[in-house]
Structures are given as structure tokens and as C-alpha cells.
Design a protein that fits this description.
17 helices; about 15% strand; alpha/beta; six-stranded mixed β-sheet; globular; five-stranded mixed β-sheet
């Protein structure tokens, strides 16, 4: 059987075109202009791939129609047709093509002489962007000649808590999108024809201004090209505003010894340990700077999980030992640390009283910077990454190997695949330096607040 001609649109490129025709055109004709994918983005992509493979266990014993590479999808289309003709009832990555449009559905299942299509997502619910995504696949599959009884999204079940071996049946939830998909079929046809026509002109890039669509539903990977040369208007961040009385009242609440604390965490789509659920934030590191009395040099304490197995009990016991029972505990963005502590308290109820004591002593250093202390240099942001250089310019995250929480999470999680002990040591050192900077920054910012009324 001869292979079909190379497709013009895949599901992914169709979705690119829906977001922005210019993104689709650049993807097809100027791929070298694409922004480089960072490690965090690569980790998210790999996580989605891993979840998709795991979901295949819901329908075991299938035949795999995956192409050997991204240039061989037409062979996958032919293989899928062959597998269907031979009576296979479960096909992974079943590929179909119709009038230049190609799709590969994650799982295709035949039950009671009817075909059911399943697309796997690593989210914990159905998202709005999943509807046109799935509608495109339904359109291609059915127009290619295979009737579908239903089309569903398989997504992670956020109510699942691991106990022992992973329970695949409980880990995933299935949501039918057929009703929504059917309403989108005319749009898929019209949009598909429009995008194919646009791609006929290889020499004329669509003219689309940058805007909110550049990040919705996902960040475009050609932003570096599209934003290059655009001169942004000089923003007006207003005049400095410092509410001395409000700041004085905030600082007056703080009692010595003062504990400046910061947590770092990682999350996995698939829970790896007992008591974990999809995307649970697992604390693997803390930093604490302690001001014992006014004018004393702050002492520093740190914890970083050994290896890549973050023991929640070890983390909690170590933290409670450092924090003691008296004195104010300062965090920057209280909701994060407070939520993690409540989760740890539920997991280890024997420490309920001690954790509640910590929560009662906790104050949010971000609070005065939200409304009572504003400088133009903060650029209308109260993120510590903007506040710190505005108030304490000699301190900077730019000189650190790891400069934000997302990179810290990715770095720790990737330690499991790091073999070279020198690389492991470098990563651990970088993690400790980053988290230490967060709490040292808090010490300095509290000092700046005091200066407003002293």
C-alpha cells in the first residue's frame, strides 16, 4: 500500500495556527528562529510523555503505531490502517490523515464493535484548550473513515493519594468530550482550510502584532523573534509611596528571636511516594536566618534533602528543631509556606501542636510591599525579585547559578538522573546558595523597613 503524501497540518500545528497564524508560518518555514527550550520546559514536556505512556496501562496489550521519527508519520498512518484491518483492538498512537491534516490519537480502543478514542493529558482536569485539540483529532479520524462512538480525555485524578504500589485505575480519570467536540466540527473544517491556504505562501509571513495571544493558551516559542526590535513605551510606575505608620505597625508585631524562613519544593505529575497525590508540592529544602536579638549577626541554618528522596518527616522534624517555640517567623508570600506546613501537619499529626505554634507565629514580609512601600524601581511588583534590587541593589540573584524557584525545583528533581558526583555536588551547592539568598534578602528588607521610621 503506497504511503499518503506528507501532511500539511498536524494537531499541534493546527493549534499553533489557532493561537497565531504567524507562529504556524514561522514553525513551518523559519524553525531556526525558535527560542531555545530551557530545562524547566523540557521537564514539563518529558513529564507529559511519561504520563501518556503510563496511561496505556489502562488498556494493556495494544500494538504501537508510533513512528520511528518525526518524519515517518505517513508510515504510522499506513501501519494504523493495517492494524485495524488485522483486528487489533487496542492501538497506541493510532495515526490518521485526511486532506493534508494528520493526527495521532494516544489510545484507540475497540469495544463491542465500536471504536473509542482517548487523548491523555497530564493535567488534573479538562482544560478549555483540550476541546479544539480533541475536535481536530475527531474531525480527521472520522473523515478518514473510522466512526467513533466517543472521544475522551484521560487526565490525572487529583483526589488520588498513593498507598503502596501505584494504582493506575485510580490515578486517572476519564472525561468524555464528544458533545463539545461535535459543536466544533464546522470550525475545525473552516479553520483547517484557512490555515492550509495561508501556508501556500512560503514567502509572505502573516503580519500579526504581539499581544495577549503570545502566551495563551501556551507561551509561543517565537517570542524572541517577534519582540525583537520593539521599543516598549517607558512605563510610568508613579511616585514613591511609603506609609510610615502602617510599616511601623507591621514591624511592631515582630518579636525576637526573628526567624526568616524559605522553602523550596518540587512536584511530580505521578506521585512517587506514599501519601503523595498528583502535583503535590514536596518540600526538599529550607533556609533559616535567625536574628536572636537586635543588632546581633544573623545565624544561618539550612536543610537539603539527601539524594532525591525528600522525606517529609525528616524535613519537618529538622525545621521544628530550628524554629523553637518563641519568636516571630517571617516568610515572603505566607500562603505557600503555610499551605505546605498544613499538608505536613495532616501527614504527621503527631506534630500538630508544634506546627500550629509555627503557623500562629508566622508573619508575611510581603504584606507591607503590597500596599505601603512602593518605589518606581519595583515596577509595580511586590515580588522579592523586584523589591530586593530596588531597595538593596548590591544584592542580586543574577550572579547565582540557580536564580528562581522553578529552576531550583527542576535542578533538584534532575539529581535522580545525575551520575557524576562532582555534578551532584555543584547542584547541591547552587541550591543551598539560592535558598540562602532568599532568607538573607528578607533580613535586609526588614532592615530597610525599619529605616523608614527610625
Amino acid at each position: 500500500m503506497p504511503l499518503p503524501p506528507k501532511h500539511i497540518l498536524s494537531k499541534s500545528t493546527f493549534m499553533y495556527g489557532c493561537q497565531c497564524p504567524k507562529r504556524l508560518w514561522l514553525h513551518k518555514y523559519k524553525p531556526a528562529l525558535r527560542d531555545e527550550m530551557d530545562e524547566a520546559q523540557q521537564a514539563v514536556f518529558q513529564q507529559g510523555t511519561d504520563v501518556g505512556k503510563l496511561a496505556e496501562q489502562l488498556f494493556p496489550g495494544g500494538v504501537d503505531a508510533r513512528p520511528k521519527d518525526s518524519f515517518s508519520y505517513q508510515q504510522s498512518v499506513a501501519d494504523t490502517a493495517k492494524y485495524i484491518a488485522k483486528g487489533h483492538e487496542v492501538i497506541y498512537e493510532a495515526a490518521f490523515q485526511y486532506e493534508g491534516m494528520l493526527c495521532a490519537v494516544d489510545i484507540l480502543v475497540k469495544q463491542n464493535d465500536q471504536w473509542y478514542a482517548y487523548e491523555v493529558k497530564s493535567t488534573t482536569s479538562v482544560k478549555a484548550q483540550h476541546i479544539p485539540d480533541s475536535a481536530f483529532q475527531y474531525y480527521v479520524i472520522t473523515h478518514a473513515g473510522l466512526e467513533l462512538a466517543d472521544f475522551s480525555i484521560i487526565h490525572l485524578n487529583n483526589q488520588y493519594i498513593r498507598k503502596g504500589d501505584l494504582n493506575i485505575q485510580e490515578l486517572f480519570a476519564v472525561s468524555s468530550l464528544l458533545e463539545d467536540i461535535l459543536l466544533e466540527q464546522d470550525f475545525i473544517h473552516e479553520q483547517g482550510e484557512s490555515l492550509k491556504a495561508m501556508l501556500q505562501n512560503k514567502n509572505e509571513m502573516p503580519q500579526v502584532e504581539v499581544g495577549n495571544h503570545c502566551d495563551k493558551p501556551y507561551p509561543c516559542d517565537f517570542q524572541g523573534f517577534c519582540f525583537k526590535g520593539i521599543e516598549a513605551e517607558e512605563p510610568d510606575y508613579g511616585e514613591p509611596y511609603i506609609n510610615q505608620e502602617a510599616i511601623r505597625a507591621f514591624v511592631a508585631q515582630i518579636e525576637y528571636p526573628i526567624y526568616h524562613i524559605d522553602f523550596e519544593s518540587w512536584s511530580a505529575a505521578v506521585p512517587e511516594y506514599d501519601g503523595h497525590w498528583p502535583y503535590r508540592q514536596v518540600c526538599f529544602q529550607y533556609s533559616v536566618h535567625i536574628e536572636s536579638v537586635a543588632g546581633a549577626e544573623p545565624a544561618h541554618y539550612a536543610y537539603l534533602a539527601k539524594g532525591t528522596h525528600s522525606s517529609s518527616l525528616e524535613f519537618l522534624e529538622s525545621l521544628l528543631m530550628v524554629l523553637g517555640e518563641e519568636g516571630s517567623i517571617l516568610v515572603y508570600n505566607k500562603s505557600f509556606e503555610a499551605t505546605r506546613l498544613k499538608e505536613l501537619m495532616r501527614e504527621h499529626p503527631q506534630y500538630t501542636e508544634a506546627v500550629e505554634n509555627v503557623l500562629d507565629r508566622m508573619l508575611d514580609l510581603m504584606q507591607p510591599f503590597r500596599k505601603d512601600y512602593r518605589l518606581p524601581e519595583m515596577e509595580d511588583s511586590y515580588s522579592i525579585k523586584y523589591v530586593l534590587p530596588a531597595l538593596v541593589p548590591e544584592l542580586s540573584y543574577n550572579d547565582l547559578t540557580i536564580g528562581n524557584g522553578g529552576d531550583a525545583s527542576t535542578a533538584f528533581y534532575q539529581l535522580k538522573n545525575t551520575i557524576d558526583p562532582d555534578d551532584v555536588e555543584r547542584t547541591r551547592k547552587a541550591l543551598l546558595e539560592y535558598c540562602k539568598m532568599d532568607t538573607w534578602a528578607m533580613v535586609k528588607l526588614l532592615g530597610e523597613l525599619r529605616k523608614t521610621f527610625e
